[in-house]
């Protein structure tokens, strides 16, 4: 039984050494399965970073002029507050107005799908909606006269993490302050609200990514293992090779791929899932060529005693 420190050192070498990846054939199933599990958790790093560790102020930059829209909401003394996960308005009053290119709807049921927006008299691509239990905001960058769909920035979530957010109280707190202090206070309140709404998606997104990457790994693991098994049998007697060895190799191979995708995911959250299959295919090709070319003959996994 190998020590944990030895296993971790082995994992570190597999990040850049094809020879060490191929040596997974000689390792126990526990080493390979643990590598598979570690790979999945490494890929969850971008989610933790973007939802919990990145600067809260970045959420404002996602939606152009969203801070000015919230300033307008505060200045209108909207008599609503968010408490215990729900939007509560005095006399159940609803509000609708435009601000800085956004349609703002408060305490109003609204279908913010494409069809819903088209049926609204004050139709706009940019919209901010405070429903009773959820928040939705979208900003679409369009050029003048351009009717084609453009990439949009969307922020949505529920109020479960928002604690006692009172629009009118925020306005009153900044009433006697200087403009500079008031603007800073409004901005801090907006950042607090938007970041809390964004964090409400953390657990659902984490679960979604976990199952998505687990399924992706399994779908990649089966054909890649069969490929390595086929390639090895071409040059070796069939009774000398075990298919289980290919599964071990492919499980360990995920570590390097996950590590690279996680680093890229921290910089660009959307790219990590796309690049996973690409990087894995490249690493598989390198392992295949290493194992079944002259360069790889001296590392042929058949010569290792399988545990």
Written account of the structure:
With 307 residues, the chain is of the alpha+beta class. It folds into two domains: 4-50 and 203-303, no CATH class; 58-200, no CATH class. The chain contains 13 helices and eight strands. It has helices at 4-14, 18-22, 29-43, 45-53, 58-61, 66-75, 114-118, 167-173, 179-199, 202-233, 243-267, 271-291, 294-297; strands spanning 80-83, 86-89, 95-99, 102-106, 127-130, 134-140, 152-158, 165-166. Strand 4, helix 7 (114-118) and strand 5 form a beta-alpha-beta unit. Helix 3 (29-43) crosses helix 10. The relative contact order is 0.16.
Task: Summarize the structure in short.
By secondary structure, the protein is an alpha+beta fold. Helices cover 55% and strands 12% of the residues. Residues 237-241 and 294-307 have low confidence and may be disordered.
């Amino acid at each position: 039984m190998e020590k944990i420190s030895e296993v971790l050192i082995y994992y570190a070498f597999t990040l850049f050494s094809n020879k060490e990846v191929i040596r997974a054939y000689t390792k126990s199933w526990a080493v390979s399965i643990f590598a598979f599990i570690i790979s999945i958790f490494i890929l969850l790093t971008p989610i933790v970073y973007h939802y919990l560790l990145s600067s809260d102020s970045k959420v404002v930059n996602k939606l152009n002029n969203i801070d000015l829209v919230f300033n307008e909401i505060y200045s209108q003394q909207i008599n609503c507050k968010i408490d215990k996960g729900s939007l509560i308005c005095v006399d159940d009053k609803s509000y609708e107005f435009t601000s800085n290119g956004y349609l703002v709807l408060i305490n109003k049921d609204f279908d913010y799908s494409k069809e819903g927006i088209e049926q609204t008299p004050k139709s706009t691509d940019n919209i901010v909606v405070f429903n009773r239990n959820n928040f939705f905001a979208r900003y679409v960058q369009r050029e003048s006269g351009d009717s084609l769909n453009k990439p949009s920035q969307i922020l949505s979530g529920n109020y479960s993490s928002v604690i006692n957010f009172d629009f009118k109280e925020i306005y009153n707190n900044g009433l006697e302050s200087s403009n500079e202090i008031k603007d800073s206070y409004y901005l801090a309140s907006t950042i607090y609200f938007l970041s809390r709404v964004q964090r409400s998606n953390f657990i659902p997104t984490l679960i979604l990514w976990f199952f998505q990457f687990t399924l992706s790994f399994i779908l990649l693991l089966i054909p890649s293992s069969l490929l390595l098994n086929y390639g090895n049998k071409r040059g070796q007697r069939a009774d000398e090779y075990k298919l289980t060895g290919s599964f071990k190799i492919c499980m360990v191979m995920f570590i390097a791929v996950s590590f690279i995708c996680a680093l890229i995911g921290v910089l660009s959250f959307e790219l990590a899932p796309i690049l996973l299959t690409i990087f894995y295919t490249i690493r598989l090709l390198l392992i295949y060529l290493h194992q079944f070319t002259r360069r790889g003959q001296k590392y042929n996994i058949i010569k290792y005693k399988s545990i």
